[in-house]
Design the sequence.
């Protein structure tokens, strides 16, 4: 019976996904601006894979990093929840999102998010309902760009100069989809051509509103782009990416500050520690970035243990951020000496207002990783305790809550068809 219900829900999503109408919004008036010191700091937290009872160590790590690095904005980078039946129903999903957001909301730090494949896989709590859970927080900047029943976390966030007069920086958010089977083989969806069209149109609108001047930007999404291989060189002893094996090119981080708290990090610097899953079908996103000339950096997650950031020949930064949490996932790698290294972390991205005003858009971006092992020893590679969201409700109340959320989901589907 459960499988039958699940199949019906998935079928509904697929059918109405085809019928869904896209919307082009004007971007969020975020109220964000640069600080008096000319800096704006973003914390990229990705692949937390939270359930309704996540790793307490992950929460403690994020809390310590928030207090130490004091970001102006937090971006959750997808696979925010575990998905599947670990958080597939509404109560568990809401509890997981609440656990994730709480450290940020308690500190009144603005945040936004993109979705990853595991967020997609909360089949009985689709992303429209997840949007409501995030959006219930006052600190949330809800992505309000191109949207269908399947693609829901596209948007952009404008940041003003310190005086609060002019929009001088932009943040793009993209829904890069999930994993699908094509001819029996799992593949990555990636950002599709309709999302790219929305981005190009919106980018042009921003340029026109800015007197014909491009507003420099960085972008966030869960999966990387096919052009990530521009940072690699083929090597038979490397890691697989779309059927070939690669290692990182030498010197790819030239021009980007990497380290902890601005100090050169001699422990990890940059690493390609495991295979890269990137879309096999190219929707033209990277090429559009190059043509539009606004995006100077794209930051992604998904690979858990990869921690690298480099500049392509097109002067675009491509960065891969570590997993900050985990539930039955691998976030470790074996170093050259055969030691198992804990690779959980998050990324800090600083933008310098003075460089932007001087037209040095690429030089305005600096980034470094913060590691779990900065604060704790050992590993959190273990299973969390049994879920408890459902234990807080009797059976009748649980059925009532789930049923009401399911009705909300059906209503949200039809809202796209009107």
Sequence:
């Amino acid at each position: 019976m459960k499988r039958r219900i699940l199949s019906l829900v998935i079928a509904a999503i697929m059918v109405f996904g085809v019928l869904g109408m896209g919307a082009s919004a004007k971007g969020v008036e975020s109220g964000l601006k640069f600080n008096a010191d000319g800096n704006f700091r973003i914390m990229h937290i990705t692949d937390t894979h939270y359930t309704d009872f996540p790793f307490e160590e992950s929460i403690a790590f994020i809390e310590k990093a928030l207090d130490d690095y004091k970001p102006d904005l937090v971006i959750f980078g997808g696979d925010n929840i575990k998905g599947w039946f670990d958080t597939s129903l509404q109560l568990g999903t809401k509890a997981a999102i609440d656990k994730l957001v709480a450290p940020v909301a308690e500190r009144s730090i603005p945040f936004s998010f993109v979705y990853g494949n595991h967020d997609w896989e909360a089949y009985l709590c689709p992303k429209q309902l997840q949007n409501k859970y995030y959006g219930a927080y006052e600190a949330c900047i809800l992505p309000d760009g191109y949207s269908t029943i399947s693609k829901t976390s596209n948007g952009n966030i404008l940041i003003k100069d310190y005086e609060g007069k002019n929009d001088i920086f932009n943040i793009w958010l993209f829904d890069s989809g999930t994993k699908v089977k094509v001819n029996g083989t799992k593949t990555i969806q990636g950002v599709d051509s309709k999302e790219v069209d929305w981005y190009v149109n919106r980018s042009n609108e921003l340029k026109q509103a800015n007197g014909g001047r491009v507003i420099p930007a960085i972008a966030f999404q869960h999966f990387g782009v096919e052009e990530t291989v521009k940072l690699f060189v083929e090597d038979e002893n490397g890691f697989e990416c779309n059927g070939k094996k690669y290692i990182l090119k030498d010197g790819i981080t030239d021009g980007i500050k990497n380290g902890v708290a601005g100090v050169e990090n001699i422990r990890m610097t940059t690493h390609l520690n495991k295979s890269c899953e990137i879309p096999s079908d190219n929707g033209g996103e990277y090429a559009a970035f190059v043509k539009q000339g606004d995006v100077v950096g794209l930051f992604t997650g998904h690979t858990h243990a990869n921690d690298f950031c480099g500049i392509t020949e097109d002067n675009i930064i491509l960065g891969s951020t570590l997993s900050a949490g985990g539930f039955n996932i691998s976030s470790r790698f074996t170093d050259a000496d055969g030691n198992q290294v804990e690779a959980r972390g998050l990324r800090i991205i600083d933008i310098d207002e003075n460089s932007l005003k001087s037209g040095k858009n690429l030089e305005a971006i600096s980034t470094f990783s913060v590691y779990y092992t900065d604060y704790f020893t050992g590993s959190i590679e273990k299973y969390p305790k049994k879920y408890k969201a459902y234990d807080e409700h009797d059976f009748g109340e649980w059925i009532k809550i789930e049923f009401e959320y399911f009705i909300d989901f059906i209503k949200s589907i039809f809202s796209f068809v009107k």
